[in-house]
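Try this one yourself first.
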């Protein structure tokens, strides 16, 4: 089965650029796709200094939904948004004042990869962080989800007085190693790349995590089983597996626990993969309601993501009666959770009026 490779290199244009991210793409592009992926054949998608976070999300979502192994190479810089103080990957139009609206929230990457099998998902990163983002990752790390193998480094911004953007030296070392045509395990590539930049790496936050779950005596990774079932078109089987884990999490920790909500979210996505927009929308509405009832903020990433996905699935419902049924609940949520895209509430209200007028 062919693999998929996403090459993402992004940094602001102008004075806000900390790293020459796009400069690594010619070196990566010179590596054979099969070597970048570690598979016999691979499809490569390249994003160089993209402008819009939604456009990046669309490409990332398509890559995450593709069958077979996925390797994502990310080069760029991290900043915190002023409102939630969460890490974002800066894009071409990002400034310090517009991070929340023009940069890619890092948790979007985590969310898109969370349903994939740990054995088939890898993230290779070379990131530079401004002072605030560096303090954040130094204290908390960078959450890439439990099912993604992560290798790379995060470097602090250059000291004042040094001119020009930094070089993505870690990713260039990775690309140079892979140009040999040999693809050892990524943890080996990681160590070899660090050995080529020893002085620089000494002051970096180094990431090397193989991802996945620790299996018990009678368990394998459930996400891998779910992924295999979805890729084979066995959607009911995939939902049955997820439902079993959801029930166990509810019984052990309660319906509002993160464990239980994770599996509810998995089932919402599985409904989407199965083409059941009604069930998916209803599930995402439920997740958003539970999170809000538990006291989570209306601009919390998980709350915004749930409402955004409910909205997206509602727009795909072909049965007008079902759309009218779910529309008021979505509109009520949109009043509380407007999200990052302007006009989202007005969009729901306009479509709902059209549906009601057509009765």
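Now uncover the answer:
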């Amino acid at each position: 089965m062919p693999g998929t490779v996403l090459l993402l290199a992004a940094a602001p244009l102008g004075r806000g650029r900390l790293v020459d991210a796009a400069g690594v793409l010619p070196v990566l592009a010179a590596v054979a796709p099969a070597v970048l992926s570690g598979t016999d054949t691979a499809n490569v998608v390249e994003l160089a200094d993209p402008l819009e976070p939604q456009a990046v999300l669309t490409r990332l979502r398509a890559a995450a939904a593709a069958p077979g192994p996925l390797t994502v190479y990310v080069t760029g810089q991290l900043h915190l948004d002023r409102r939630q103080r969460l890490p974002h990957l800066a894009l071409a139009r990002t400034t310090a004042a517009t991070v929340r609206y023009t940069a890619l929230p890092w948790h979007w990457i985590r969310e898109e990869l969370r349903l994939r099998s740990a054995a088939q998902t890898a993230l290779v990163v070379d990131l530079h962080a401004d002072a605030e983002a560096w303090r954040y990752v130094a204290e908390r790390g960078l959450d890439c989800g439990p099912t993604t193998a992560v290798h790379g480094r995060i470097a602090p911004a250059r000291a004042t007085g040094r001119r020009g953007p930094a070089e993505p030296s870690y990713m260039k070392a990775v690309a140079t190693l892979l140009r040999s045509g040999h693809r050892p395990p990524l943890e080996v590539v990681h160590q070899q790349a660090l050995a080529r930049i020893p002085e620089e790496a000494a002051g970096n936050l180094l990431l090397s995590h193989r991802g996945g779950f620790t299996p018990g005596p009678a368990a394998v990774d459930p996400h891998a089983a779910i992924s295999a079932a979805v890729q084979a078109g066995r959607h009911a089987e995939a939902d049955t597996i997820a439902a079993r884990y959801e029930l166990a999490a509810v019984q052990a920790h309660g319906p509002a626990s993160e464990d239980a909500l994770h599996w509810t979210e998995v089932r919402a996505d599985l409904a989407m993969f199965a083409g059941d927009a009604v069930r998916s929308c209803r599930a995402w509405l439920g997740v958003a309601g539970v999170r809000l009832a538990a006291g989570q903020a209306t601009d919390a990433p998980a709350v915004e993501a749930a409402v955004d996905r409910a909205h997206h699935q509602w727009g795909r419902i072909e049965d007008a009666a079902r759309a009218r049924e779910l529309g008021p609940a979505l509109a009520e949520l949109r009043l509380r959770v407007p999200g990052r895209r302007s006009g989202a509430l007005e969009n729901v209200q306009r479509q709902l009026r059209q549906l009601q007028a057509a009765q």
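Discussion: The first helix runs from residue 25 to 29. The radius of gyration is 21 Å.
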